[in-house]
Design a protein that fits this description.
By secondary structure, the chain is of the alpha+beta class. It is built from eleven helices and ten strands. A hairpin with a 2-residue loop joins strand 8 and strand 9. The protein starts with 8 loop residues before the first helix and ends in a 12-residue tail after the last helix.
Length: about 300
């Protein structure tokens, strides 16, 4: 997975426009990430909720709104017990809420919401259709951004998304000193399968390989189709021992899918992640012909 861009200027302008038209102390755009809610953009004065803030999804008013435990507009949370006793509402001392889900098809991606510590008038209810319109546009924008970063055959991140992720993780590794590792994966005999059985069989093999690799990584690792029959995994906050285990899981997953492949591992070194990517991909060639071993740093 990739981390959503924080405080995107266009999204921030939408939040500023909503505040200018509807008031409320703070407007936020959020995304669901597993069991957490990530604030991807924030605008307003008061209420300490900045872009990048994370909170348990189940503790938020947005979660209860999305599950229809309360209305999309609550001029006074005291009148909506399901909202008033939400842990984040209590922590922030919220008294008014206006929020709608951000959808992708039938899946909730996040929420667009306005918050205030003072009760509001009944006009908040009348504003719901306008906020729904804004949320629909944001959802379509996020869908388009996802499609631009997704390999259509395998559903994995494409080269563009990979480059963006490597850049952001390199900055994070430098700032906090976290270890990281890159795993290169090259499917064996792929050209021969294409030549013998046709491209449809080759495409199916790529899809099976992608599913096996994605099933072997940790939740916060990133998997990309690098190109052709090559894949890359970026393992964040991953030391040598964790990298060994990751490589073993992916090898086992590929073997269970009946897909022989060559794997090469590189730990992030002084020259950064991009140099580690080059080393990992080069080492897949070193492994060709020795499928019982895998090549990597210090191994």
């Amino acid at each position: 997975m990739t981390t959503p861009k924080l405080q995107d200027p266009a999204l921030t302008e939408v939040l500023a426009a909503l505040q200018g038209r509807l008031g409320l102390e703070r407007w936020i755009a959020t995304r669901c990430e597993g069991e957490e809610l990530l604030v991807v953009a924030s605008h307003g004065e008061g209420l300490d909720i900045d872009a990048g803030a994370r909170m348990p999804w189940a503790d938020t008013v947005c979660a209860r709104m999305a599950s229809r435990d309360g209305p999309r507009a609550a001029p006074d949370l005291i009148g909506v017990p399901a909202f008033a006793d939400a842990p984040m509402a209590v922590q922030l001392a919220l008294r008014a809420y206006l929020g709608v889900p951000i959808w992708s098809g039938d899946r909730v991606l996040g929420a667009l919401a306005g918050l205030d510590r003072e009760p509001q008038g009944g006009g908040l209810v009348d504003a719901v259709p306008f906020v729904e319109l804004c949320a629909g546009l944001i959802g379509r924008l996020w869908d388009a951004e996802r499609d631009a970063r997704t390999d259509p055959l395998t559903g994995l991140w494409n080269r563009r998304a990979w480059e963006e992720t490597v850049t952001s993780e390199e900055e994070r590794s430098r700032r906090f000193g976290h270890p990281a590792a890159v795993l290169g994966i090259d499917l064996d005999d792929f050209k021969a399968i294409n030549d013998r059985y046709g491209h449809a069989a080759g495409d199916e093999r790529l899809r099976r390989a992608a599913a096996a690799i994605a099933g072997g990584v940790r939740e916060h690792d990133s998997v990309s189709r690098w190109g052709g029959d090559e894949f890359c995994v970026l393992a964040v906050e991953c030391d040598e021992l964790a990298a060994r285990r990751l490589c073993g899981r992916i090898r086992e997953a590929l073997a269970a899918a009946g897909i022989p492949a060559s794997l090469g591992l590189a730990l992030r070194g002084p020259q950064g992640l991009r140099e580690a990517v080059n080393r990992a991909l080069a080492r897949t060639a070193d492994e060709k012909g020795s499928p019982t071993e895998w090549v990597g740093d210090h191994l």
